[in-house]
Design a protein that fits this description.
Chain B: InterPro entries: Peptide/Ni-bd, SBP_5, SBP_5_dom. The structure holds two protein chains of two kinds. By secondary structure, chain A is an all-alpha fold. Helix content of chain A is about 70%, strand content about 0%. Chain A has one domain: Orthogonal Bundle (MetI-like fold), CATH 1.10.3720. Chain A has helices at about 30-40, 40-55, 60-65, 75, 90-95, 110-145, 150-165, 165-180, 190-220, 225-230, 235-275, 285-295, 300-330. By secondary structure, chain B is an alpha/beta fold. The chains are: A mainly alpha, B alpha/beta.
């Protein structure tokens, strides 16, 4: 998103010619970076996202400094924190100098560390999904687009099927099946394995939209003259794809990946909300929201903490995605 | 019977003897709202049901102060009634709905905190000249079905006969088993659809029905208060279709029903209040709405907008999400019905896997009852239990063999484990996979681990929970279950839960506890004719069973439900659900 500069700011273009550096050739990435830096919304969004990423990935470190962890049931272990109904006694959901964002109703765990670890869980899962989806989508999309013909037809129909599948229903039905297939009765599924299942299930559908996007891009690039020229001079298909096509596909790939992260964060949260995501005791953003929706009448704070933080995160990440697209590909329509 | 998973779901039948001290009397719910003990549970009182006289069985029911007829009352339930065929109902809210549309040989009259077994269709609670082997009931005059035809003794007989049919399943089986003297009663008699009659029931005339049992059963008048004894005219028996629309013998009849969505009951003009000692039937109409979640129902009842002003619910309890709001707001607390129920909840231990009693005792010592109850809703959920039968059962005696605080005693548990020679046994804790039970598992795992147990939490699909833990070869060590008495006798609790001979797949002995000495003793007490003396014996036996530490007693369940400000006479009834029979629309 491009913001209008306030009228008091001197317009950049009207710098005195003397101070303007001699026009030198700038690489596209440098141009993009320059455009991005001028985009204040983008910068702000990037800062917010960075805070979330640092907070999430640095959760264990922070928890160490803060002196709490997301697993101990402080409210249950120590009398005076929760009342007989399991709600925090102190106002604002039990916020205090000791528990900065209060206590979880019922179990009495620390909300701040729960949130940070929850962000970490959601972020790691969604980043992993985006990585898998992007790699798969690029491979399939580029192959289909470049080879065309029968391959393109078959891949195209598969993508059609994947995209028309009711994926949310599938997640709900399929996750417990996979879970029971992978665990023996009498043993608990490790949280890493469960995260793996969620990543696999989400990625199983996610690649299709990336592949379709890339296929279209490749189809339009394939007939460009420089590609034709490379073919004519006898470049191998591998070289054409890697050297000629891929560099021109970086923009759509980056844009789709940056837009996909917040989508998968919310999808992962939705899965937990629906009861097929991460299970206790692994802290999870979506499950916090679920609990919040249940106790909001008595303890609104507990709903606000995960709710507002997720809202801020998703908005910031979407704005960042927009800015990245504007910077990389200013001509594209939005 | 079995309690379903999920706090507020459920429950197969029962009778409560205890009555809540507070808002369950018929005074329109204007009880001591906002008193000092804001979350205090009603004290369960042990009170024998007295057997009423013929005079007490006479209608009409005593007028309630302030009550007036007319209006439409609404009932909100989470799910539609699975069964309404009187021979098939065994879940408390279904039995509660039956109160409006069917009548039985006997029933319970509650006035204030006193409960009496009285004749319903019968003029009294039955007579037995030979100490319980033969029971004779005489029907009242003027009993009519919804089409005006008379209710006959033959219809009562036919109603019981059809409960033997193999397609009519799900209801209680006491009468059937007693009549043929065999727990596999269908092998002796397979119902009236093949043209056979049951000779154990005789109907010498249209108003007399006589039951002849192979063995004396002093409890028979209680057993015929269950819906098995509902009269069904042969001509109106639609077999499986009867489940959708039973033929009414009660004060209302079903006028419209959309399965899973709604149901309407209107007056049965042929019901004569002068024949009925318990049902008031003040509202002209009952409207049922199904499909909202428990939380939505509670929030609607709190808001009480529009038609919800005169709404109630048979069994949607005030859940953990609104418990504090309801119990600390005087206006809301004033419109709750509140009483102890006959249900006791346990965390069952698999006695075939945890064979060392010291280990089981250690588990009892370490178990964090208070922390778990806090997650389930705190005091609104129930009182901590230390015994196997609940305080509503005749002969109940409070005792505490473990002697640990409700928060658990880690040191005592450690010591017991050391004595057992296994300081770190591995325990598989199975739970129904819902957010609430998942949170409970966090607490249980933590507490048991502190005591030295190694705990493997094992979630089970909510729908198949009872099937899974009901397997004789299940691989779990600890799992929740609940049980309530069908009538206030331990004979419907201890043999059902702790008789090793009844261990089978999908049975009710989830702890797989078996001790031949105890089983023999159960047989002896069951055959006693003096119910009060038997109650004492049951209590002694219970302590002996508890010495074996077969289960972790958890709580005696409490029923706390909200109702709209436009209703009066709402109270928790005998089976642990909220009753409609005294309700009027203000």
């Amino acid at each position: 998103m491009t913001t209008l500069a306030p009228p008091t700011d001197p317009p950049v273009e009207e710098d005195p010619p003397a101070t303007r550096p001699a026009p030198t050739g700038l690489r596209p990435s440098q141009l993009a970076w320059r455009r991005f830096r001028r985009d204040r919304t983008g910068i702000a969004a990037a800062c917010v996202v960075a805070v979330f990423v640092v907070a999430g990935l640095g959760a264990p470190l922070f928890a160490k400094l803060y002196g709490k962890d997301p697993y101990t049931t402080y409210g249950q272990n120590r009398p005076g924190l929760l009342n007989e109904f399991g709600f925090p006694i102190a106002p604002n959901g039990g916020m205090s100098g000791e528990f900065w964002l209060g206590l979880e109703p019922g179990l009495g765990r620390d909300v701040l560390t729960q949130l940070l670890y929850g962000i970490r869980t959601s972020l790691l899962i969604s980043l992993a999904v985006v990585a898998v989806v992007t790699v798969l989508g690029v491979l399939v999309g580029v192959t289909a687009g470049y080879l065309g013909g029968g391959t393109d037809f078959v891949v195209g129909r598969v993508i059609d099927v994947m995209l028309s599948f009711p994926s949310t229903l599938f997640f709900i039905a399929f996750t417990p099946v996979v879970t029971s297939l992978l665990t023996e009765p009498g043993e608990q599924m490790s949280s890493v394995l469960r995260a793996g299942v969620i990543i696999a299930v989400l990625a199983a559908f996610g690649w299709a939209s990336v592949a379709r996007l890339l296929r279209g891009q490749v189809l339009s690039l394939r007939s460009r003259e420089y590609v034709e020229a490379a073919r004519v001079i006898g470049a191998s298909p591998g070289r054409v794809v890697l050297r000629e096509l891929l560099p021109n596909l970086v923009t759509p790939i980056l844009v789709s990946a940056s837009m996909a992260v917040p989508t998968y964060v919310t999808t992962e949260a939705a899965l937990s909300y629906l009861g097929v995501g991460m299970v206790e005791p692994t802290p999870d953003w979506g499950r916090m929201l679920l609990k919040g929706a249940e106790v909001y009448k008595t303890d609104i704070t507990y709903m606000c903490v995960p709710g507002i933080s997720m809202l801020v995160f998703v908005v910031a990440f979407n704005l960042l995605g927009d800015s990245v697209r504007d910077a990389l590909d200013p001509k594209s329509d939005r | 019977m079995t309690l379903r998973t999920g706090t507020t779901r459920a429950t197969l039948v029962t009778l409560v003897l205890a009555l809540g001290a507070a808002a369950c009397s018929g005074g329109g719910g204007s009880s001591d709202g906002g008193g000092p003990g804001k979350g205090a549970a009603p004290k369960a009182q042990v009170r024998a049901v007295s057997i009423g006289t013929a005079a007490e069985s006479k209608g009409p029911a005593k007028e309630l102060p302030g009550a007036k007829p007319g209006g439409t009352a609404t009932v909100l339930e989470r799910a539609d009634f699975n069964h309404l065929d009187p021979a098939r109902v065994y879940v408390s809210h279904e039995q509660t709905a039956e109160l409006l549309i069917t009548r039985q040989l006997t029933t319970y009259r509650q006035e204030g905190d006193h409960t009496t077994l009285v004749g319903d269709l019968a003029t009294d609670t039955g007579t037995s000249p030979d100490g319980g082997k033969t029971w004779t009931f005489t029907l009242k005059d003027g009993l009519k079905y919804e089409d005006g035809s008379p209710i006959t003794a033959q219809d009562v007989k036919y109603g019981i006969e059809r409960s033997f049919a193999k397609e009519i399943t799900g209801g209680p089986t006491w009468i059937q088993e007693w009549l043929v003297g065999n727990t596999d009663f269908r092998s002796v008699y397979d119902g009236p659809y093949g043209g056979r009659e049951l000779d154990a029931i005789k109907t010498p005339d249209a108003r007399t029905v006589t039951f002849t049992l192979p063995a004396p059963r002093g409890d028979f008048p209680f057993a015929v208060a269950m819906h098995t004894s509902t009269p069904v005219p042969r001509a109106k028996d639609t077999k499986l279709e009867y489940d959708k629309r039973p033929f009414s013998s009660g004060p209302y009849k079903i006028s419209g029903r959309e399965i899973d969505k709604s149901m309407t009951m209107v007056r049965n003009e042929h019901w004569d209040p002068n024949t009925d000692a318990v049902r008031h039937a003040y509202p002209d109409q009952w409207k049922f709405e199904f499909g909202a979640s428990n939380q939505q129902i509670n929030e609607r009842l709190i808001a009480a907008n529009g038609n919800d002003r005169s709404a109630m619910t048979f069994r949607v309890a005030v859940g953990r999400e609104v418990a504090q709001q309801v119990l600390t707001t005087p206006e809301l607390k004033a419109r709750t019905a509140d009483a102890a129920t006959p249900y006791t909840e346990y965390f069952e231990m698999n006695n075939r896997r945890l064979t060392n009693p010291k280990v089981r005792q250690a588990l009892i010592a370490a178990f964090p009852k208070e922390q778990v109850r806090q997650i389930l809703g705190g005091p609104a959920y129930g009182e901590f239990a230390t015994t196997l039968m609940g305080p509503t059962v005749l002969g109940f005696e409070s005792y505490d063999l473990a002697g640990v605080p409700p928060t658990g005693d880690v040191n005592k548990a450690r010591q017991l484990l050391a004595e057992a020679g296994t300081p770190n046994p591995t325990i598989t804790y199975a739970y129904s996979q819902t957010p609430m039970w998942e949170q409970v598992s966090v607490t249980i795992v933590q507490a048991l681990q502190q005591a030295g147990f190694k705990v493997v939490p094992q979630p089970i699909n909510d729908k198949s929970y009872y099937t899974e833990i009901g397997r004789m070869d299940n691989k779990y060590d600890l799992y929740w279950s609940g049980w309530g008495a069908d009538w206030p006798s331990a004979a419907t609790v201890l043999p059902a839960k702790f008789d090793g001979r009844k261990i089978m797949d999908d049975g009710s002995v989830y702890s797989l506890y078996g001790n031949p000495a105890m089983s023999t003793e159960m047989d002896r007490i069951t055959s006693m004719s003096d119910v009060v003396a038997a109650g004492k014996e049951w209590s002694n036996l219970e302590k002996r069973i508890m010495a074996d530490a077969p289960v972790v007693p958890f709580v005696y369940r409490r029923q706390l439900t909200l109702y709209g400000p436009g209703l009066g006479g709402v109270r928790v009834g005998f089976i642990g659900s909220t009753y409609p029979i005294d309700v009027w629309v203000k």
